[in-house]
Write a structure and sequence with these properties.
Isopropylmalate Dehydrogenase, 2 domains, two-stranded antiparallel ribbon, about 25% strand
């Protein structure tokens, strides 16, 4: 029996509903693959902030460090400015544990309508640089809160940071063995320093992978081409900000953000990696039992793969694909009327069946 220690942070809003759904799936799948999960729940997030004035305790990272993986719901509350929630929990974890590759697959499953008139066979992964770039939080205010206030926000691009995420993308294209193509996204025509370094690094790493086709797009053209020819993308690698935006586009092209999983990986495995749906805390639908749990369940499937339980991870994805293809249990975001728990049970039934 393999045992894994998993830190569980449901967080805010619908995180409190989708993480329990993912845990039900883990509980069902563990015994089938001779694995068990020691879950450690952390009550960090908005409620913790209301009581303690911070999103997580000062020693939070020390508490997480020994764990094998982290399963996160979402953070964000309408009563707290979003930059506090994000910079108080999510971004520090990503940075402290060097989770530099944010892997966001987008697959158009059978039975799921895409908003596109002519959707192709969409099966792409956005690899987003996750520790630096535009989210490095370098900058400051001058004349703070005065009428002539100035804000400076700097993006940080390092050769090491670009090289490693680009290399990760090429390795992933090889491993997926689908179109064997990597598309790099920048805006190097307008941003002549960081993005130019990115282009140069991409070219250099690409030369190590002659078996993989390459493409470089400016982010505005990429946004257009995601919609015009989504089937042409395989692995897409982008900076923190561009990857964040484009992966919401790829999520909706494949039917709903409620289907979009993600992994924040430290590929070197020095630290625990973190698995979370792409979506946020969705306060508008929280607490009503109608949130789509599949993004969170698929994220748990990615966690299984990362832990070396590849077959278990694949069986989670097959079960989700089966439920979607059957079309009997769908939450409202997919045009259905099912409750979160019914959809979760349908996934578990398939795993058991
Ligand atoms: P959101 O992803 O929470 O919601 C966007 C839209 O998608 C809403 O209409 C929502 O109802 C819907 N939606 C999201 N997940 C769904 C699901 N699983 N099933 C069905 N419908 C779903 O993004 P929004 O509204 O921009 O942000 C809400 C809060 O979440 C903010 O406080 C924001 O900062 C935070 N946030 C947190 C993230 C994280 O923890 N990783 C990521 C994105 C936003
Ligand atoms: Mg986002």
């Amino acid at each position: 029996m393999q045992r894994f220690s998993i830190a569980v942070i449901p967080g805010d809003g619908v995180g409190q509903e989708v993480v329990p759904a993912a845990l039900r799936v883990l509980e069902a799948i563990g015994p089938r693959y001779d694995a068990s999960f020691d879950l450690k729940a952390f009550d960090w997030g908005a409620d913790y902030y209301f009581h303690h004035g911070r999103m997580m305790p000062a020693d939070a990272l020390e508490q997480l460090r020994p764990m094998d993986a982290i399963l996160l719901g979402a953070v964000g509350d309408p009563q707290i400015p979003d930059h506090i929630t994000l910079n108080g929990l999510l971004l520090p974890i990503r940075r402290a544990f060097d989770q530099f590759a944010n892997v966001r697959p987008a697959i158009l499953y059978d039975g799921v309508p895409s908003p596109l008139a002519r959707p192709g066979a969409i099966d792409m992964v956005v690899v987003r640089e996750n520790t630096e770039g535009e989210y490095a939080q370098v900058g400051g205010f001058v004349y703070h809160h005065q009428p002539e206030e100035v804000a400076i926000q700097t993006a940080v691009f390092t050769r090491r940071g670009i090289d490693r995420v680009v290399r990760f993308a090429f390795e992933l294209a090889r491993k997926r063995n689908k179109q064997r193509r990597v598309t790099s996204i920048t805006k190097s025509n307008a941003q002549g320093f960081g993005m130019v370094l990115w282009d140069r690094a991409f070219q250099a790493v690409a030369s190590e992978y002659p078996d993989i086709e390459t493409e470089s797009l400016l982010v505005d053209a990429a946004a257009m081409n995601f919609i015009r020819r989504p089937e042409s993308f395989d692995v897409v690698v982008a900076s923190n900000l561009f990857g964040d935006i484009l992966s919401d586009v790829s999520a909706i092209l494949t039917g709903s953000i409620g289907l979009a999983p993600s992994a924040n990986l430290d590929p070197t495995r020095r630290f625990p990696s973190m698995f979370e749906p792409v979506h946020g805390s969705a306060p508008g639908i929280a607490g009503r039992g109608i949130v789509n749990p599949l993004a969170s369940i698929l994220s748990a499937g990615m966690m299984l793969e990362h832990l070396g339980l590849e077959e278990a991870g694949r069986s989670v994805e097959r079960a989700v694909a089966g439920v979607l293809a059957e079309g009997k249990f769908k939450t409202p975001d997919l045009g259905g009327t099912s409750h979160t728990n019914e959809v979760t049970s349908a996934v578990i039934d398939r795993i058991a069946g």
